[in-house]
Amino acid sequence: MIDRLAIEGYRSIRSLVVDLAPLTVVTGRNGTGKSSLYRALRLLAAAGRAQAVGELAADGGMDAVRWAGPERISRAVREGAPTQGLVRSGPIALRLGFGSADGLGYAIDLGIPVAAASMFDRDPVIKQEHVFAGLEPRPAAVLVERSGPLARVQADGGWRELSRSMAPWASVLDEHQGAADAPEIAGVRRAMASWRFHDAFRTDAGAPARQPQIGTRSPRLDDDGANVAAVLRTSIEAGLGDGIARAIADAFDGAELEIVAADGRMTPALRQQGVLRTLSAAELSDGTLQFLLLVAALTSVEQPGLIVLNEPERSLHVELVAPLAALIRRAAERTQIIVVTHQQQLADALAGLRIELEKEHGETLVAGREGPLDVPAWRWPAR
């Protein structure tokens, strides 16, 4: 489980460290930085797949995503002085990391390359990576250290070299970097690979979830929701049918789910009270299909280490908020869940650890913090 998350220099987040719980709700008004936190988590997951540099480049490079404000927001600035003319004294850095109280953590430090008259000079480069034990990358807790081209791992009380020629775009988590024999790296990579993100399922008339799809056993929901019927059926046959039936009955006045199969293809359908025939996925409202997709994502056979839901209430009628909250709470009993939402009714109904964001002088902050002592401990390794 992720117990601590740290972000520095990303979009509206100058510096943010938060503790997380099995169920965490990130909320706040529009424009306070919820999307920045969500996208930072997605970028961190990309780092776990050794794809952070590519993701950043596709986003426009460091210039497009890095914190654009001053390094430090001084007392004068907080009292209304303009920020123009403030010069950065330190290196440009985008840092992401997480820690675990009883497991492994990971931190990555990205920067800009030294100009070399290359067409790839806009690509970010990996300056540092650390795999560590515990909640923060303290020197004594570091198990794997990468600095520039040099990567090494703790072994028998000393350091064993993994590589001294790592390319600036290559991650130590990449299994092709000669680190396959380092169990710490494999453990972090495996944990991060299990993270799942669900954001804005397609529910339009042409959505894949509305079309019958070839049905094979499916332990997890595809990003486009195309295999929703197969996921639900796989979960039912694995003994999770009671939870699925309960969620659907609670949401739709006793409705029952049916998985219709024909010629090897499957589609979900609902049998509702007072309706003489089942309604196929093609006939369901956008909100009903959205709820079915969320049920599939949260009851799948696969148990990811983390599920992040970005505004799951989209397209849902207000009457579905309570059933959705109940579904998420039950899912959080077996999988860590982060919900990003601006809907207070859903945030209240979830009743998990709440992180409310606010923005001050362009910076995303956690509301209610009175000073540095309220911030969880985290120290980025020096370059």
UniProtKB/TrEMBL annotation:
Keywords (A to Z) from UniProt: DNA damage, SOS response
Any one biological process term the GO annotation gives: double-strand break repair
Annotated Pfam families: AAA_21
Domain ATPase AAA-type core: 23-347
InterPro entries tied to this protein: ATPase_AAA_core, P-loop_NTPase, RecF-like
A GO MF term: ATP hydrolysis activity
Family matches, as CDD domains: ABC_ATPase
UniProt keyword Coiled coil present: no
Keyword set includes rRNA processing: no
Name of the protein: ATPase AAA-type core domain-containing protein
Species of the source: Agrococcus pavilionensis RW1
Highest classification ranks of the organism: Bacteria, Bacillati, Actinomycetota, Actinomycetes, Micrococcales
